[in-house]
């Protein structure tokens, strides 16, 4: 076994371990945001278009907050901004639960607040990972990170699904009250995560220009991958909840379906993160994209409860496999180009988010357009398949990117 294959927690600094622990605690919040906020909207509106509008508002808030964060970092400690991002997720849910009816204004407002939360969280988290890890440890970092996320994706949906169906009166008002209790729990976890994170020591990005519009040709390949990744993100967060609520009408079934796939995904991620090398990233990325395509294909072909279960099962395995390959590729490109172009690393993080946003906007608008001009069922059935096919183009782009990246590394040597 090679030295790289034996990478473990000992290879991380104390601050990196604290960041991992913080993300583990916050991972108990993410399934609630990803799954049950969407199911809450579906339960109280029975309109998939409203779920997608809420998601579009989130995606709009993220790049705006990324941009603002670049300026805030010059005057505010990164710890505070990262913590604020986690806390705002609870604020958004409280706002959502306080709405007397699920109207468009309320959805957009709640979505923008959640977008601010994600913007502060992910902008600073991406930089913190970039600053505290090296290329050789990133497969293990993201393997461990996705293992924790998929582990909580097993525990949280089952507990919340059971609680919503059995912990209250089995009426809409009773279940809505259960959602409010879940929201309070979210606040508790975000506070704990924020406190733990403050035990680490982290340097802020350099106080330099971070807004650029022209980049190295290698970065243009990275942006193409970001756009295609964004296409899928326009769906994969809310699609499982919409489909489960449509065919099963039960948060309990939603929680169980999420957990079955997550059990397998958690074990796979831990092994892949520990034993794969940087040279395996293209293969992992390709496998993840093919699984995503198969998930959308079975959903489109069957469009029934069996199809939904297959879709969720394959998607739960595809997402972390994609992450364990995609994020290390992205950070390695930033490592190389920030040195070549002598730019602040955050400038690449911000620009990457803009690429994601364009893809998310196109993906969400594809769904909304089909739902508006035809109907929501056709959108649920075929929009995902369209995105799944387009996503396969990323395999070709990733191969070209990694080839160019190797050339640049060899030139440096």
Overview features:
globular; 82% helix; 413 residues; disordered N terminus; mainly alpha; Growth Hormone, Chain: A
Give a description of the structure:
With 413 residues, this protein is an all-alpha fold. The protein has one domain (11-198, 214-408): Growth Hormone, Chain: A, CATH 1.20.1250.20. Helices cover 82% and strands 0% of the residues. The chain contains 15 helices and no strands. It has helices at residues 14-26, 30-45, 48-72, 78-98, 104-132, 135-166, 172-197, 217-236, 239-247, 251-275, 281-302, 305-340, 345-373, 376-391, 393-412. The two termini are 27 Å apart. The relative contact order is 0.15. Residues 1-5 have low confidence and may be disordered.
CATH class: Mainly Alpha
- Rg calc: 20 Å
Largest sheet: none
Report the count of strand segments: 0
Number of helices: 15
Overall tally of domains:
1
Structural class: mainly alpha
The global form is globular
> Whole-number average pLDDT?
81
Name the CATH superfamily classification: MFS general substrate transporter like domains
CATH fold name, please?
Growth Hormone, Chain: A
Show unreliable segments: 1-5
Helix content: over 70%
Q: What's the helix-strand series? A: HHHHHHHHHHHHHHH
- The CATH architecture: Up-down Bundle
Measure the end-to-end span.
27 Å
Residue fraction in strands: under 5%
Transmembrane segments: 20-41, 53-74, 81-98, 104-123, 144-165, 177-201, 222-243, 255-275, 282-302, 308-333, 354-374, 380-398
Protein name: MFS transporter
Organism: Gillisia lutea
Keywords: Membrane, Transmembrane, Transmembrane helix
